[in-house]
Design a protein that fits this description.
Elements (H helix, E strand, L loop, with lengths): L12 E3 L2 E4 L6 H8 L2 H6 L8 H16 L3 E7 L5 E11 L4 E8 L8 H16 L4 E7 L3 H10 L2 E11 L5 E9 L8
Helix pairs in contact: 1-3, 4-5
Bound molecules: coenzyme A.
Amino acid sequence: MRLPGTFDTIPTLTGDGIRLRAPRQDDLAGLVRAFSDDRVRRFMPVPPDYTAAHAQSFIDTAPDMWRGQRAVFVLADEASDTFIGEAELLSVNELYQSAEIAFLLDAPARRLRTAVAGLRLVCRFGFEQLGLTRIEAFADFENSPVHYAGLRAGFRHEGTARGKLSGPDGQRRDAVVAAVLPEDLQSP
Ligand SMILES: CC(C)(COP(=O)(O)OP(=O)(O)OC[C@H]1O[C@@H](n2cnc3c(N)ncnc32)[C@H](O)[C@@H]1OP(=O)(O)O)[C@@H](O)C(=O)NCCC(=O)NCCS
């Protein structure tokens, strides 16, 4: 198993029209738009007033996050290299060779079947380069798109994590537990 903190630079990976790469300065406007999106604010733990300062900090501190064992990427369109989303593997657990995935697409990049390709690319990185044997996802029961996209990418639903998530109103919310193992990625 290889921990994110052992990478000298944030790696770049491409496949199925997607690029995973380090965040950079020209992603700033896209990051602000994507993290201010209603569905992202509803379903992900982001600051309610996500500003350019938050995005700048994300760009500047991404290498530190890797050193903190959190593999953070920007998702870009492979042809244009422009920002289309953000993805990360967090809670990397060396003992269990597992991690959790977080994933979002900028609204203009949704409904294009991009999510499945992006999820699979992040998971391939986790299995092939980090040596993970299990990647978990925790999603709100009402977040239908991520359930559909996750199942198509190879995740399987395993149960309920009670009170795992914090809703925008601060209330604890149950999550669907889903996970993908290396063999689940074999078939498209
Ligand atoms: C989750 C997310 C990445 C999925 O990306 P997407 O581009 O919307 O996904 P897709 O277009 O591949 O859609 C997946 C499926 O959900 C369906 N779907 C998409 N948006 C939907 C919506 N608003 N309501 C109901 N179904 C929807 C699609 O029809 C598709 O079903 P199909 O494969 O049977 O056709 C994206 O919606 C997103 O960034 N959401 C906000 C952040 C977030 O919730 N991240 C996950 C936190 S756990």
